[in-house]
């Protein structure tokens, strides 16, 4: 932000100008949802990503509110910038734009990454993991992230993303007279009293087969049936394959 305030006098002016033009857009040219208006966010109504966007924006706001403390405690970091303290020099919206611009360009190299980023002179080069033919696309992978995180961080989604998933939270009723017995059954089957189920692309049927026994356990009201399950082995409440879509 300080470099941006220097305008064309900044060494980084061309790069900052490009970041501003991109506005956190990913490869599909979609502006980061962190910069959407309230009315635009309503398009995400019903999707968990909307709450994630709100939470991320709240986190950015907290970062902004802590800038002045950083400025006072680590003043040596800002000696080259003869400007006022951050929150007086820059409004929150400018800070958020800068945050999103940087976030959308961050590269996370996994520990087993075969490609490398190297600095050569005044340029940065991506050294790829194998020989490529002319006009063959080079794909820079963002790691095993669901589409919600790709959209939030980079402004794009992958329609064939094998790591995309929907998280469904289910729980046993703590006011159920048989809660303790049901929790024991759940634990015996590797589940918790509050359990998250991940529905992944192409594996919907398998996840449903895992969820249904847990839900049926929660709805059992006959104490004898619970005792029968506790004394048995195997699945909590076997599900007929005919019941699955």
UniProtKB/TrEMBL annotation:
It comes from the Eukaryota. One of its GO terms (cellular component) is chloroplast stroma. Pfam families: Rubis-subs-bind. GO terms for molecular function: protein-lysine N-methyltransferase activity. Residues 174-241 form the Rubisco LSMT substrate-binding domain. InterPro entries: Rubisco_LSMT_subst-bd, SETD3_SETD6_MTase. PANTHER family: RUBISCO METHYLTRANSFERASE FAMILY PROTEIN, UNCHARACTERIZED PUTATIVE METHYLTRANSFERASE. This is Rubisco LSMT substrate-binding domain-containing protein.
